[in-house]
Structure formats: structure tokens, C-alpha cells
Design brief:
The protein has 291 residues and is an alpha/beta fold. Helices cover 35% and strands 21% of the residues. It contains 9 helices and 12 strands. The protein has a 6-stranded mixed β-sheet with strand order 2-1-3-5-6-4, with helices on both faces. Strands 9-8-7-10-11-12 form a 6-stranded parallel β-sheet, sandwiched between helices. It is globular, with a radius of gyration of 19 Å. The protein starts with a strand and ends with a helix. Bound molecules: NADP nicotinamide-adenine-dinucleotide phosphate (NAP).
């Protein structure tokens, strides 16, 4: 009897996950099928309840449900609870467990592809949605010295800063967290002492409403810092293009996508992820012109 894993989100048109996850499952010859389960908002509760059926191993969760699924689960692990977002669900004998592997994927790509150690560094985050929350907690746990957070909606960046400060005060960590207003991103010295700027907004994403745009102008990007854009399509994004012109180092979102997926794969199967197989498939699908 085949078993199933799926991706729950809406809409799912351009997702790479079904392709690279299936390549990894096939590598082990597992009788498991990874499917795209496009789920309209009114179907979310039913889709999550269906995960309890024995043939379903679990799911990935993507935009816009990473936060909405939390109350529908039986258990949520500590990091996912802190972040307030779940991107991986595991069915353990009819009990649904929620995890967040975005933080792990972000950090692994930062170290491996970005050759960057967060400890003691000064970082800035653009955005305050689910991805920004995962990145914020990852950088604080990675002992960054300071974190600037700028988001179009100020209340959301203040809420993220509040959650991070609360966590820091309970964990003997020392990251200094500050909120910047969105318009202040236009002042030329805004990142003068930063080592890392991470774009966690959707600005520049292919098919998005801000396709072709950059959240930053070239004049505010210092030389030699690392600019990391979580968006993986297109590559380079408009931000990364400008950052490269400014003399900064750049990192796109594809490695993070693969590493977060690899961590999910291990949660469902207990097998070590064939990371090269996954990575090559993701790259092939992205560069193949279909996306
Ligand atoms: P989200 O929760 O919907 O947050 C979107 C963020 O973008 C918010 O901070 C929003 O600001 C901001 N934003 C959107 N349009 C804007 C505009 N025109 N001007 C200024 N700010 C704008 O989405 P998410 O889940 O955090 O995802 C964010 C991005 O990260 C997406 O592009 C996603 O594809 C990417 N991502 C990549 C990976 C990976 O593995 N590579 C993993 C997760 C996410 P407001 O709060 O003001 O609305």
C-alpha cells in the first residue's frame, strides 16, 4: 500500500517541493508519493484532519497556512511554538506533531553556502512575517550580537522584536534587538555597521505583486556585507543584483529551500536525506524554464 506526504498551501502553482522531495523518496525506493494538496481556506481543517489517516505520513505547510495550522495540531515543538509557525507536520499514530524547519534551513545555508557564522555578527532583517520570525529566532539562537528589524507594518516588527526580547531574557542570550521604520531603509548609512542583511519580504518574488522590485536601493548596501534573499525565484533577485553591483556578497533562497525540505524528509522517513539528489532536482526544475 503506498503512503503519502503532501504540500498544503494556496495557491501552489510554482512549488518546487513535490519535485525534489519525490526525487529523494525515489532514491530510497520508498513506496511514498509526495503530492501537491492545494487547499482553499474553507478546506484547511478537513485537510489537516485527513492527515491522521494511517496512509498519510504528514505534510509540508506553506503560504498562507504556516500560522493557521498551529491550533489544529495535537503537539507543536518548542521552536515552532516560539516562531509561531509550522512548516512540517508528522502523523505519529493518528497524533499530529508540528515542526518548523525553516530556521534550520536558513542557518545551514548561511553557514554552508554563505560561509557566514552568525555568532557576534550584526544583522538586519527586512520583513516580519513567518519567514522573518524563523530567521530572527535562528539568528538570536546563533548568538548574533545585534538585530535590526524593519517591516512595512510597524506593529508586526514590534511584535517580533517583543517575542525575541522575551526569549533572550529567558535564555541568557545577549542579542540587542532594535526596530527600524520602513522609510528609514532609504537613509544611506542605515546598514553602515551591519555584516548581514536578510530579505524576508516577498518584494522581488517572481509572479508576486512586487515582481522586478528591490526592497533596498544600491546606495544603502555597503560593500563586503552578505546580502541574503530568501526568495529563490528569480535568481538573482533584483535585490541580489543590486547587492552584487554594490560589491556585497550574495546568497539566494534555493539552498534554504532544500535544507528545510531535507529536515522535513528526515522527520517523515527517519532516513538520511540524499541532499545532492534533492539539490540537483530543485536546481533543474528552477533553471529548466518551467517555473
Ligand atoms: P508572509 O508571512 O506573507 O510575510 C510577507 C512579508 O513581506 C511581510 O513582512 C510583509 O510586510 C512584506 N511585504 C510584502 N509586500 C511588501 C511590500 N510591497 N512592501 C514592503 N513589504 C512587503 O510571508 P513569509 O512566509 O514570511 O515569506 C516571505 C518570503 O520568504 C517569501 O518570498 C517566501 O517565498 C520566502 N521564503 C523562502 C523560504 C526558503 O526556503 N527559501 C522559506 C520561507 C519563506 P507587511 O507585514 O507589512 O505585510
Amino acid at each position: 500500500m503506498p503512503e503519502f506526504v503532501g504540500l498544503i498551501g494556496y495557491p501552489l502553482r510554482h512549488s518546487l517541493s513535490p519535485h525534489f522531495q519525490q526525487a529523494a523518496l525515489d532514491y530510497y525506493g520508498l513506496d511514498i508519493c509526495y503530492q501537491a494538496w492545494e487547499t482553499a481556506p474553507e478546506e484547511l481543517e478537513i485537510a489537516i484532519a485527513r492527515l491522521k489517516e494511517p496512509q498519510n505520513l504528514g505534510a509540508n505547510v506553506t503560504v498562507p497556512y504556516k500560522e493557521a495550522v498551529l491550533p489544529l495540531l495535537d503537539q507543536v515543538d518548542r521552536l515552532a511554538n516560539l516562531i509561531g509557525a509550522v512548516n512540517t507536520i508528522v502523523n505519529r499514530n493518528g497524533s499530529l506533531w508540528g515542526y518548523n524547519t525553516d530556521a534550520h534551513g536558513f542557518m545551514k545555508a548561511l553557514k554552508k553556502q554563505g560561509d557566514f557564522e552568525a555568532g557576534g555578527k550584526r544583522a538586519a532583517i527586512l520583513g516580519a512575517g513567518g519567514a522573518a520570525r524563523a530567521v530572527g529566532f535562528a539568528l538570536v539562537k546563533g548568538k548574533a550580537a545585534s538585530l535590526l528589524i524593519a517591516n512595512r507594518t510597524l506593529k508586526r516588527s514590534q511584535a517580533l522584536a517583543g517575542s525575541l526580547r522575551h526569549y533572550i531574557s529567558q535564555s541568557e542570550l545577549e542579542t540587542e534587538v532594535r526596530v527600524l521604520t520602513w522609510p528609514s531603509l532609504a537613509s544611506s548609512n542605515v546598514f553602515y555597521d551591519c555584516n548581514l542583511v536578510v530579505n524576508c519580504t516577498t518584494i522581488g518574488m517572481k509572479y508576486g505583486s512586487s515582481e522586478g522590485q528591490s526592497p533596498l536601493g544600491i546606495d544603502v548596501i555597503p560593500e563586503r556585507i552578505l546580502v541574503y534573499d530568501l526568495i529563490y525565484n528569480p535568481y538573482p533577485t533584483p535585490l541580489l543584483y543590486l547587492a552584487r553591483e554594490a560589491g556585497a556578497n550574495i546568497l539566494g533562497g534555493l539552498p534554504m529551500l532544500v535544507y528545510q525540505g531535507a529536515a522535513s524528509f528526515e522527520l517523515w522517513t527517519g532516513e538520511e536525506t540524499p541532499i545532492d539528489i534533492m539539490y540537483n532536482k530543485a536546481e533543474e526544475m528552477l533553471l529548466g524554464g518551467e517555473r
